[in-house]
Amino acid sequence: MRTTIEQADLRNLEELMKIERECFTAEAFTKEQIASLLRNADVVGLLARVDGEIAGFIIGAIEYQIRARVGHILTIDVVVKHRRKGVGAKVLQAIENAFVERGAKISYLEVRVDNMAARRLYQKQGYEEIEPLNHYYSKGVHGLRLRKQLRPTLR
Questions:
Q1: For residues 33 and 76, is the Cβ–Cβ distance under 8 A?
Q2: Distance between CA 75 and CA 60 in Å, rounded?
Q3: What is the pLDDT of residue 57?
Q4: Would you state the torsion angle of the CA atoms of residues 43, 39, 29, 108, taken in this order, to the nearest 10 degrees?
Q5: Which residue ranges make up each domain of the chain?
């Protein structure tokens, strides 16, 4: 099994939407939202291929907060048949590296409280749960905000 990471772009939009709908039914981004994100210069979109097949993707934005740039992961999606094989960790590390290259010192994201698999992945990758988000996804569907201090990778 060979996993590669590459830039996601509008040519991948249909496949990305299929994966987004598989991963997030009611909370999925729309096709227009993903297209708009991929056109934005402050957004990083990466996809993972396993043996040539798109196995997952991640989209994040560089945001400008007081005195600092931060990376905000907006969605991370892994096709069901490729889960628990390291794909999520690989795209997460790749986007963190892209954030660092763009000057971000912190990465943050939101996750559903009941998504224990994702929470375990983020914890293993060094994210800390910092804030509860009541009714974040919809009424009665709560989230958590997580944060990670980014460090430049040595090459």
A1: no
A2: 7
A3: 96
A4: 0
A5: 3-149
* Identity of the residue numbered 103: G
Backbone angles phi, psi at 114, to 5 degrees: -85, 5
3-state secondary structure of 149: strand
Q: Is residue 130 within 8 Å of residue 147, measured between CB atoms? A: yes
d(CA 89, CA 81): 15
Q: What dihedral do alpha carbons 27, 134, 84, 21 form, nearest 10°? A: 0
Query: What is the distance between the alpha carbons of residues 150 and 19, in angstroms, rounded to a whole number?
Result: 28
- The amino acid occupying position 11 is R
Superfamily of structural domain 3-149: Gcn5-related N-acetyltransferase (GNAT) (3.40.630.30)
Place of tokens 């929470």: 119
Q: Can you list the positions of beta strands (E) in 28-116?
A: 43-50, 53-65, 68-78, 104-112
List beta partners, residue 143. 112, 133
- What is the reported pLDDT for 143? 93
Q: Over the stretch 65-93, which tens digit does the pLDDT of each residue have?
A: 888 899 999 999 999 899 988 999 999 99
pLDDT digits (tens, 9 = 90+) for 6-23: 999 999 999 999 999 999
Give the amino acid at 41. A
